[in-house]
Amino acid sequence: MNNSFSLGQPPKLQIFEEFNDVETNYLYVNIKTAKLQAFHYHFKTVTQLEADWKEIISALTSEILIKEGLTFQRRNTYVLYTCEEPIPKILQYTIENNKFSVRKLIYNKSEPNLSTNLIIQHLNEKILISNIDIKGKIKVKNTVTVSEISQNFIEDYRKEVENISSDNVDFLDRWLEKKVGL
C-alpha cells in the first residue's frame, strides 16, 4: 500500500496542554489534497482512561471542528486509545461504539511502552486495511446457494405468482398471511 500513517507534528491544539499527563501522538496520512488524522492517547491505568476519554473527545472535537475547514478531514479523524493495563471489553465496547464526533479505536495491547511502529501498523490495518492484499480481479461464479427452506419458499412464491395477475395488490398480503402468519 502506498499510503501509510506517519508520526507528525500535531496541530496547535489546547487539548495537548490540558491532558499533559497522558502520552499523546499525532499521526496522519496525506491522500491527494486531503488528510486522515489520528490522535493516539496512551494511559497508565484503566481508571484514568475511563475518567478522561469523553473529555478528550469533547475537547478535541471543539478544537478540530473550529480549526478544520474540510469536511473530509473532520469526518476522517480518529482517536486511538491504549493503556498499560488490559482494557475491559465493556469499556472497549462503550468507547468504540460511541457515535459522537470522531471515530474511536482501542488497541488492547497492554504494554508500558508501545512502539510507534506497532501503533502505525495497527492504524494501517484498522483504517487503511493494509493487511488485505488485492492483486487482481477475482473471478466469481454466478452461482448462489440457498438453503432447502429458502428454495421451497421461493418455489411456493413463484407458483402463487403464476396464478395471480400482476395488478392484484392484495396478493402479497394474502400470501404473507398464509405463509408467515402476518
Summarize the topology.
Blueprint lengths: L5 E3 L6 H4 L4 E9 L2 E10 L2 H22 L3 H5 L1 E7 L5 H8 L6 E4 L9 H11 L21 H16 L6 H11 L2
Parallel strand pairs: 3-4, 4-5
Antiparallel strand pairs: 1-2, 2-3
Task: Please provide a written account of the structure.
By secondary structure, the protein is an alpha/beta fold. The protein has two domains: 6-126, GMP Synthetase, Chain A, domain 3 (2-Layer Sandwich); 148-180. The protein has helices spanning 15-18, 46-67, 71-75, 89-96, 116-126, 148-163, 170-180; strands spanning 6-8, 23-31, 34-43, 77-83, 103-106. Strand 2 (23-31) and strand 3 form a beta hairpin. The longest helix has 22 residues, at 46-67. It starts with 5 loop residues before the first strand and ends with a helix. The mean pLDDT is 79.
Sheet with the most strands: spatial strand order: 1-2-3-4-5
CATH class category name of the largest domain: Alpha Beta
CATH topology call of the largest domain: GMP Synthetase, Chain A, domain 3
* CATH architecture term of the largest domain: 2-Layer Sandwich
SS strand fraction: 15-25%
Termini distance?
A: 51 Å
Shape: elongated
Task: Provide the low-confidence segments as ranges.
Answer: none
Order of helices and strands: EHEEHHEHEHHH
Structural class: alpha/beta
- Secondary structure tally, helices: 7
Radius of gyration: 25 Å
Tally of separate domains = 2
Mean pLDDT: 79
Q: Major sheet: size, sense and barrel closure?
A: 5 strands, mixed
Helix content: 40-55%
- List how many beta strands DSSP finds: 5
